[in-house]
Amino acid sequence: MFSHIMVPVDLRHTDRLERALAVTAEEAKHHDAKVTFVSASNATPGEIAHSPDEFREKLASFAKDKGQAGGYTADAHALILHDTTADLDHALVEASKEINADLVIMASHRPNFADYFWSSNGGAVASHANASVMIVREAE
Q1: What is the pLDDT of residues 66-91, one digit of tens each?
Q2: Where on the phi/psi map is residue 100: left (φ > 0), alpha (ψ -120 to 50), or beta?
Q3: Is the dihedral of CA 78, 83, 84, 88 positive or negative?
Q4: Which of 64, 14, 78 is nearest to 35 (CA)?
């Protein structure tokens, strides 16, 4: 049913992705689907990497480790954005089209007060992507 799964990840918070990564492994194995982990960074030095190349390497390493541990084929797709806060939703939708993903699996947090004023990344992607979108609520 699905052949290519896109999984947006925040490399600063991989410890908060446990359930979404478990669902990703199950779906990838069940459908014999390729997984592409997508993450975004600014071009300027940040807490994860000092350069876009270092960021790409860290994302590729993350993808390789998760794929090997989960028993599925995994790749990485880094997004280098001018402003990750402002540009992320659109960039994720475009990435899903660019890599031809037919399923997007995203982690989500429990809604809080701010979510009533600003939509979540998952909601924005679900509203605009051509792919099916599965939002996995992480345990608190």
Answers
A1: 999 999 999 999 999 999 888 999 99
A2: left
A3: negative
A4: 64
